[in-house]
Design goal:
heterodimer, A: 402 residues, alpha+beta, 2 domains, four-stranded antiparallel β-sheet, 26 strands, B: 136 residues, Alpha-Beta Plaits, two-stranded antiparallel ribbon, 3 helices, 8 strands, binds iron/sulfur cluster
């Protein structure tokens, strides 16, 4: 029965492809079994919508008259510092960047109302952004100061380039201490007051392709409401973790680096985000289509929340101290029930990742494919898999002695 | 007829020091329960109050407050959700002390029942996309 991506694309062009979401496939497999479902279904669409810190964008703003060399100078977008370590008119902004005068955590917990993620959201919304830059001046680039409004439509290039997105599984956060803590996993109340998690579970891209059999470098995806590509494995990509019998990692594992034209993205899918007491970030929408090339691949996509487990980690102790202790493992089905018993205590759960929006992404991608406007790509190279031996190493500090 | 209402009082700077709430008890025979009181960064005093008593006394009390320069808002108008910005993630569900947010187990969307809200403002900064807004 094995299909090829070319065959699936022919069906998409002919308007005959059968596409279902990673949520719909679960019931379909229950009704029809994997063999029949694998024959019928051509593509399963996944989705995730979650704060993803290692995200950013770069721009080419065009040359000024007279010319200015931003490279090696300083540049600010709405007071948020941008990186100027490139050539004359290329700048990059990261989602976590903060204005120099942001009070940060001086009054704890800091609010972090506006940062790089918000700049990206406003740019995508078509709002004018204030660029203020200084440079040192050279014979060929004499200008030293620039203050101007810029708008995404006038930029030569505006590219979203995220170093690490779409984490394959993630920690579940709790707080065992006696005071409220403010983390990138949200506000955690004392004495196991709440549990926060952040994964779309059964809809999440890499949980539906646990061994990266179809998702690879060059895979075309839904990114921020537009079209993007998997550029590389994401930073911290760690395929070698504890896995269940179904192949699904029980710890944070694979990640994706993704890239796409920011000009065609939408602010609904790139939202500037503030984590109280932690910092600014951006909530990113990603959807990945999985071609059903075999029954095995289909089986992976039929995974459901009951069969995906994540570690519960204390963010007041084990996490900051880099200890590997966990309080146990829970399934996403348990997490999504709203209440979990941990250490004999009933603890309410909350999500940082939006499941309704993940469903919306998977459905949008499905519509795009059904309408023929989105065809699948064959990866040009695979992501490093379990056999690569790659693990996520801590920093080995070597103190610098004078 | 006895009424009991939750209201938000906004005190301009000049009336903050006067014993306004005390007079509600003494002159108008009203009972109160302060749910929350704080100053905004603009130094306006803000108090969330549950006020109960006879309807006629209640009306007189409110009249007195208004004359004293206090602005009164019914509670439910104060904290609203910007529906455009809410992603239905759910981060607010365990933050709200009164259970004003509820997860719909079917759609997995988060319902906001603002009649349960006591305007404690805890959710305002805990909402990652900042979809919850206080309107003074
Ligand atoms: S935390 Fe904010 S965005 Fe998330 S569900 Fe609550 S109100 Fe909506
Ligand atoms: S202001 Fe307080 S009571 Fe009202 S919804 Fe937010 S957290 Fe709940």
């Amino acid at each position: 029965m094995a299909k090829t991506i070319e065959e699936i694309n022919e069906k998409i062009k002919a308007g005959k492809a059968v596409v279902v979401t990673a949520e719909e496939i679960i019931d379909l497999v229950k009704q029809k079994g994997t063999k029949k479902a694998a024959q019928e279904v051509d593509v399963v669409t996944t989705g995730t919508f979650s704060p993803m810190c290692s995200s950013g964008a770069y721009f080419n703003i065009g040359h000024t008259k007279p010319r200015i060399k931003l490279g090696g100078g300083r540049a600010y977008l709405n007071d948020v510092p941008a990186y100027t370590g490139f050539a004359a008119t290329d700048i990059l902004i990261g989602a976590n960047a903060l204005p120099d005068d942001d009070p940060r955590n001086r009054v704890h917990p800091g609010e972090f109302n506006y940062g790089g993620g918000h700049v990206i959201e406003e740019l995508v919304s078509g709002k004018d952004i204030r660029l203020v830059a200084t440079a040192y001046g050279t014979d060929c680039y004499p200008r030293k100061k620039l203050e101007t409004w810029i708008n995404i439509r006038d930029l030569n290039q505006a590219v979203l380039f995220n170093l690490r997105n779409a984490y394959q599984n993630y920690n579940v956060a709790v707080n065992l201490s006696d005071r409220t803590i403010y983390t990138y996993m949200g506000v955690l109340k004392p004495d196991l007051g709440n549990i926060n998690y952040s994964s779309a579970g059964q809809l999440s891209p890499l949980l539906n392709d646990p061994y990266y059999k179809t998702i690879g470098i060059g895979t075309k995806i839904f990114l921020g409401g537009g079209i993007g590509f998997v550029a590389w494995q994401g930073t911290q990509h760690a395929p070698n973790v504890l896995r269940s019998d179904n192949g699904v990692p029980r710890r944070g594992a694979g990640t994706l680096a993704v890239i796409g034209d920011l000009k065609q993205m939408k602010p609904r899918w790139l939202i500037g985000t503030s984590m109280l007491g932690y910092g600014c970030t951006i909530t990113v929408g990603i959807g990945v289509p999985i071609p059903i090339l075999s029954e095995e691949i289909l089986k992976y996509t039929a995974v459901s929340d009951e069969d995906i487990f994540a570690p519960v980690v204390d963010y007041s102790g084990a996490y900051p101290q880099m200890k590997s202790d966990i309080l146990g493992e829970v399934s996403y089905a348990q997490l999504k029930s709203g209440m979990i018993t941990i250490q004999g205590k009933e603890v309410p759960t909350a999500s940082l990742s939006s499941y309704p929006r993940a469903v919306e992404i998977a459905n949008l991608l499905k519509e795009w494919i059904l309408s023929g406007k989105f065809q699948l790509t064959k990866p040009v190279a695979p992501l490093p898999g379990v056999e690569s031996g790659i693990t996520f190493k801590p920093l080995k500090e070597r103190p610098i002695e004078d | 007829m006895v009424v009991s209402k939750r209201i938000v009082l906004h005190f301009p700077r000049r009336v903050v020091e006067r014993p306004i709430v005390y007079r509600l008890v003494k002159d108008y025979d009203l009972e109160f329960n302060i749910l929350k009181a704080f100053f905004t960064p603009e130094e306006e005093g803000l108090m969330v109050l549950e006020l109960s008593g006879e309807q006629t006394d209640y009306d007189k009390g409110i009249n007195y407050l208004t004359k004293a320069g206090v602005r009164i808002q019914s509670l439910s108008q104060d904290v609203i959700r910007n529906e455009e910005r809410c992603t239905h993630c759910g981060a607010c569900v365990t933050i709200c002390p009164t259970g004003a947010f509820e997860l719909d187990p079917l759609t997995r969307r988060i319902n906001f029942y603002n009649e349960k809200c006591v305007a404690c403002v805890l959710c305002i900064k805990a909402c990652p996309p900042r979809a919850m807004e206080v309107h003074f």
